[in-house]
Design goal:
Blueprint (H helix, E strand, L loop, with lengths): L7 E5 L2 E7 L6 E6 L2 E7 L9 H12 L8 E5 L5 H9 L4 E5 L3 H10 L8 E4 L3 H6 L6 E6 L14 H10 E13 L4 H11 L4 E6 L1 H4 L5 E8 L5 H9 L6 E3 L1 H8 L25
Parallel strand pairs: 5-6, 5-8, 6-7, 8-9
Antiparallel strand pairs: 1-2, 2-3, 3-4, 9-11, 10-11, 10-12
Length: about 280
């Protein structure tokens, strides 16, 4: 009994962080901040992804070029480092850099959910935009962005200048993956599509069908690239997932988000407030 994992709590910049052991899955841990789920990590199997949106991002990462090879990846927003752990397991030898402004949260995760010493993951307690601005040009195959200040994406991480900063760090054939949250009529997701379209030629959205139909508030994964992305293969993989999702691109994406305009720095606002109970646990 003394060896059973127990919940741990720490005050961090974003509020009160808790690490809760999964009593039904040995090695599983849930990270929450102020009651909102942030990350799920399986220390025994980092390829096990519990959160639906993380599985969708993972499908994109699996399809990123070069296939079956290492990646140079930048992750904006750290949480419990679920996706960096996944890449380290699926593409050993990858070089990954993580930026998260919450130094106390990063220390908390490092203490209780340590990374393997050979993971190839470096972590910086830094604002995402400042981290991008200090990164070498054309140094990443993939940039993932899952940055929340509380329940909002910070305003300065929603703009054309932010999209350009990501584009500068990506290689010509690189992929950007951004997690946003919204509901119909998708004003925020639409603004992000319009914003990233000023930099990238190819855009698609991935989400649960009920979210895309406007029946509930939820995560929407935006994928952007200069080179054509295998959206048909992504659609097959996400449709066959344990948590099925739909890919919107082309005319379907235009119907969903048409009329939205890019976000300039002077017009930026945080992402919308989730409805009560949308991302909380009991």
């Amino acid at each position: 009994m003394d060896d059973e994992p127990i919940p741990v709590t720490r005050a961090v910049q974003g509020g009160t962080a808790k690490l809760l052991p999964d009593i039904d899955h040995e090695g599983g841990w849930l990270l929450t901040v102020d009651g909102a789920p942030q990350s799920y990590v399986d220390l025994r199997d980092p390829m096990h992804l519990e959160f639906e949106y993380a599985r969708r991002v993972a499908h994109v990462l699996d399809l990123a070029e070069p296939r079956q090879s290492t990646l140079d990846a930048v992750h904006l927003g750290g949480g419990a480092l679920t996706l960096p752990r996944y890449v380290a397991a699926t593409r050993p030898g990858s070089r990954q850099r993580v930026a998260d402004i919450d130094a106390a949260l990063l220390a908390f995760v490092e203490e209780y959910l340590p990374l393997p010493p050979d993971a190839g993951i470096s972590v910086a307690a830094q604002d995402a935009r400042a981290f991008l601005d200090g990164s070498p040009a054309a140094s990443a195959d993939v940039v993932t962005a899952d940055v929340y200040g509380g329940v909002h994406v910070p305003a300065h991480l929603t703009t054309v200048s932010y999209a350009r900063a990501i584009g500068r760090v990506l290689r010509a054939d690189g992929i950007c993956v951004v997690n946003v949250a919204d509901t119909a009529p998708f004003r925020f997701a639409g603004s992000q599509v319009a914003t990233f379209r000023t930099v990238f030629e190819h855009i698609c959205l991935v989400a649960e069908p009920s979210v895309l139909r406007g029946r509930r508030f939820g995560n929407v994964v935006l994928v952007a690239s200069h080179e054509p992305f295998p959206v048909d293969e992504l659609a097959r993989r996400t449709a066959a997932d344990v948590f099925p999702a739909r890919v919107e691109h082309g005319a379907g994406l235009e119907r969903l988000t048409g009329g939205a305009v890019p976000v300039e720095d002077g017009d930026a606002a945080p992402s919308p407030e989730p409805p009560g109970g949308a991302f909380t646990i009991g």
